């Protein structure tokens, strides 16, 4: 599925996100900038911080465990339900609506914010009821697993995958960046990320974060 080239000939960029994560949100806004300056098309997929961490809850701080238990399942369940019932094309716009309310507007992942985001993009607000249902958890887990299989368990969200020179996908976690670069800066980060990610055996560049997400 993910390796298929779009009909418009643009390079497909598969992006796995959990709408709860502010850092994935920053990266996703950068990817929208990359679409403007490079011949790429982003295809959005859900992954789940709750699924990612369900086997290591004992290792996590209590506050993070509470967040996973009380907030993490609802938004991704709503997105996967929207995708299953209304098609792949709604995923990106719904993510934008959710993220804008959760992060930029400071509303957080409340039921009210989820319902409002659905309304923002013209989707039925009763999709919000899927937040408390496991109806599409099989599809949610499959989407999550597709992304995580490309990079391994020791990462988070987002995961990005692009076709390599040999046709095989190159996948990586991140980049983690704030604020989201725009214009030529977005293009430079994209080109550099692809350059290092395409090197066989390359795994990591990292430095301590000294700034939180800047939503602009």
Number of helices: 7
Q: Indicate the radius of gyration in whole angstroms.
A: 17 Å
Strand content: 5-15%
Protein structure class: alpha+beta
Give the averaged pLDDT, no decimals: 93
Main pleated sheet: 4 strands, mixed
Shape label: globular
Span between termini = 33 Å
Low-confidence stretches: none
Total count of strands: 4
State the share of residues found in helices, binned by percent. Answer: 40-55%
Following the backbone from N to C, one meets helices and strands in this order, namely EHEHHHHHEEH
- Order of the strands making up the biggest sheet: 2-1-3-4
Protein name: DsbA family protein
Organism: Streptomyces sindenensis
Pfam families: Rv2466c-like (PF22234)
Can you walk through the features of this model?
The chain is α+β, with helices and mostly antiparallel strands. It is built from seven helices and four strands. The chain has helices spanning 22-37, 49-53, 62-86, 91-104, 111-120, 137-148, 183-197; strands at 11-17, 40-46, 159-163, 169-173. It has a four-stranded mixed sheet with strand order 2-1-3-4. Helix 1 (22-37) links the parallel strand 1 (11-17) and strand 2 (40-46). Helix 1 (22-37) packs across helix 7 (183-197), helix 3 (62-86) runs antiparallel to helix 4 and helix 4 (91-104) crosses helix 5. The longest helix has 25 residues, at 62-86. The radius of gyration is 17 Å and the shape is globular. 36% of the residues are buried.
